[in-house]
Amino acid sequence: MNEEIEEIREDAEKRPPRDPKNGLYTFLSVLIFIAGTIIFRLVGDNITLVYALHEGDPGEQLKTAALRQLNIDRLPERSDVLYVRMHRNFDEDRLYLAVRLPDGTDEESFVEEYIPYQCGNPVTDERFAVYPEADAKAHYIFGDRYVSVDDPLTACIIYKENDETVAVFSSAEYDHNISQLFSAGKIAI
């Protein structure tokens, strides 16, 4: 028994002494790790090059700015703006404005009165991608597309879904500073 106690003492003497600052080193290591993680996320979120902004319930300021950027002077009475969306570094950097049209809206008269540019012949009953949700998943619909004769990246898609008629205006020509009016965060693509 005395031999076992001697062996334990010898082992204890061979070990290096315990550093009293080990707790401080552990605390500093955890603190550095947390700070590094926060900085990495902040930098990653702010330098994301490919993203979308989506406002499902846009405020008046964003609605007005989007209408102005798309050169839309007015919308039909009783129409609702469903969402405003902006793409950055994909999909030709488009700005979207989706409008729910009132029941009984005639598509031809809507095109003549409310589309702010001259259109060629529409592409009818084609499959198009729209982004009605605040994510990066495209929603595919069948509708009619009216493209500007002056700018092929400016268009309006009109489609029916769930007994509603929706017009989605889009353009790649707009002031990118409109992104400051979005209150929602970036959607990574």
Sketch the topology as an H/E string, one letter per element. Answer: HHEHEEHEEEEE
What is the overall silhouette?
Answer: rod-shaped
- Please estimate the helix content: 25-40%
DSSP E strands, number: 8
Strand order of the largest sheet: 4-5-6-7-3-2-1-8
Main sheet makeup: 8 strands, antiparallel
The rounded distance between the terminal residues' Cα atoms is 69 Å
Low-confidence stretches: none
Strand content: 25-35%
Mean pLDDT: 88
Tally of DSSP helical segments? 4
Question: What do these coordinates show?
Answer:
With 189 residues, this protein is α+β, with helices and mostly antiparallel strands. 21% of the residues are buried. It is built from four helices and eight strands; from the N terminus they run H-H-E-H-E-E-H-E-E-E-E-E. It has helices at residues 2-14, 22-46, 60-69, 107-114; strands spanning 51-55, 80-88, 95-101, 123-130, 139-147, 155-161, 164-171, 187-188. Helix content is 30%, strand content 29%. Strands 4-5-6-7-3-2-1-8 form an eight-stranded antiparallel sheet, covered by helices on one side.
Summarize the structure.
The chain is an alpha+beta fold and 189 residues long.
